[in-house]
Amino acid sequence: MKTKLIFLSLLFLSFLNLKAQQCTPVITSPRLGTMFPDKVVFCNSESETLTTTQTYATYQWYKQEWDWQTPNTNPWVPITGATSQTLTINGSTDMLYYFKVEVTQNDCTAESEPVMADGYAYGLPFMIADFQPGTFEEIGPGEYNICEGASVQLNDGFPLVYGTHTWFKCVPATIPASSTDPCIIPGATGDSYTATSTGNYGFYACTEYCPDQCEFLGDFAFIQLNFGNWNFCSNLSTGEVKLKENSLNIYPNPTSQFLYIGRESDKKYPEVSIIDMSGKLIKQKKDHTYSEAIDVSGLVPGTYIVVSKNADGKIFKNKFIKK
């Protein structure tokens, strides 16, 4: 008798579980959840098929236009003729809509949780140049003189969006560039590149989620870097400093705590940078007044370079010794 009761209990629980399954439709699709848990993300204008994970007697699919505010006040609209287990949506016409399905099975009627058809908000790539302080001078829009021995790190501003890159040291003849184009930097396919020689640098990049969707902003987005032994440069390999001629006052020198930089005629300096002998930025001060003291007591004893720029954009370089 006890065995029979256990069997009947299990049978009853199985029946309840079946009923629960019948009343909980779940939408699935090949791309659902690949980037965001409840979204289908399209590449360009591709199509996608939504379906339920279980079979039901009847189906009715609905769509709701996306709204930036919460709650979404747009109505759910039944899709004409969408009464089968599957629904094909398109990246051109269905992007930024929510979809759900209502099903019936015996005496059960239920709705699925909605999913959204989204288009990936591809940010156009852009290049960020990371210069070593004291090793560069801008000589025109998008053109810089760089000290020999220094480097400039070039980065894609949207590294999470883009996958394979093609980096160039000059403007290629065509886009996409031929594999034999001499402007291509061999092996440079990441989202950053470190430049150490003269060239006109830029890149062509393809999105990681949609490998066939690529972007090139044109030669106006390239940056010209001219490496050489310019008169403002430090010899980074030996630490020998070649200072540009200047008449700035820097005192006391050596110093253990406070340092005064500048001259009365300039009044203010938009930027003052303190750099160690390897070219590393140690301290920086904005809107410096010549009569203000800069506290250098926290610096490790040694020799440092002070790079100062006045209101006219003229750059001065001095050495000082921290005791």
TrEMBL record:
<feature type="domain" description="Secretion system C-terminal sorting">
    <location>
        <begin position="250"/>
        <end position="321"/>
    </location>
</feature>
<keyword id="KW-0732">Signal</keyword>
<dbReference type="InterPro" id="IPR026444">
    <property type="entry name" value="Secre_tail"/>
</dbReference>
<dbReference type="InterPro" id="IPR045006">
    <property type="entry name" value="CHLI-like"/>
</dbReference>
<dbReference type="Pfam" id="PF18962">
    <property type="entry name" value="Por_Secre_tail"/>
</dbReference>
<feature type="signal peptide">
    <location>
        <begin position="1"/>
        <end position="20"/>
    </location>
</feature>
<protein>
    <recommendedName>
        <fullName>Secretion system C-terminal sorting domain-containing protein</fullName>
    </recommendedName>
</protein>
